[in-house]
Design goal:
mainly alpha, 4 helices, globular
Length: about 110
Amino acid sequence: MMTAFLGSLLLAYSSMLALCQGLERHYKQVWGRAPTLGLRRVLRLAGWLLLVASLWASAQAWGWAMGPVGWLGLLSLSGLLLAWLLPYTPRLAVYWPLVGLPVWGAAYLLAI
């Protein structure tokens, strides 16, 4: 259950990050250049798919009765964390899920 909760949190953060990076202003803030139109579309699509994956993980952690409620809380927490990290350490905001998702995957496999 704890791995499903952590996975949902990481997926929620990753979805917020992908949606954020799909905007030209925030992409420039992190990478110093404008994204292409194709990249913006891919980031937005990835963000929406990660939102769905996060909802599914929340339902796995808490069931479908309380999962969507917990998911909304995790989305709020993820958005707040991203809003705190992006202005001060934009690269850390981007690299955090790249480290967190493989660690979560390993923890999930060990818990099975």
